[in-house]
Amino acid sequence: MFDFSLGELVVVGTVALIVIGPERLPTVARTVGAMVGRLQRYVAGVKADIQREVELDNLKRLEAEMNEAGRKLRDDMMNGVEPVKDSLRETAAATHDALSEPPTHSGSVAAQPHDDKQFDLFNAGQAYDHPPEYSPDHRPPPERDRR
């Protein structure tokens, strides 16, 4: 804080001893020491307050930047969603119009009657009759019963 050399301190101490006197010098030295301590604590407090203000300003600026980035991202996402929404609305309207029109038969495509013997891919395994020894529920007898 202050830059005093040892020689300068000796000169100040000698002048204080001559001016103040040897009886009051210890009391004055204690008082001056206490005041210097208070001054150092006050300066440290002011420095800490300034540092907190600088950090607070940095945090506020960072918060503003993050809010702006969030708004920009939201706007970009909403702008990207609007064409998809419009396309889905158009598709839904076209599907609704197509389903609400009565069917027209031009004669070239005739309705096929349903054939019960038509191959069904999803039930193909159930339609095949397995012999009982290959049935999934059939288990071979235990080893001791086989002869």
From TrEMBL:
Basic and acidic residues: compositionally biased ranges: 130-147
GO molecular function, one term: protein transmembrane transporter activity
Main subcellular localisation: membrane
Compartment list: Cell membrane; Membrane
Function of the protein: Part of the twin-arginine translocation (Tat) system that transports large folded proteins containing a characteristic twin-arginine motif in their signal peptide across membranes. Together with TatC, TatB is part of a receptor directly interacting with Tat signal peptides. TatB may form an oligomeric binding site that transiently accommodates folded Tat precursor proteins before their translocation.
Record-linked NCBIfam families: tatB
Quaternary structure (record): The Tat system comprises two distinct complexes: a TatABC complex, containing multiple copies of TatA, TatB and TatC subunits, and a separate TatA complex, containing only TatA subunits. Substrates initially bind to the TatABC complex, which probably triggers association of the separate TatA complex to form the active translocon.
Protein name: Sec-independent protein translocase protein TatB
Lineage: Bacteria, Pseudomonadati, Pseudomonadota, Betaproteobacteria, Neisseriales
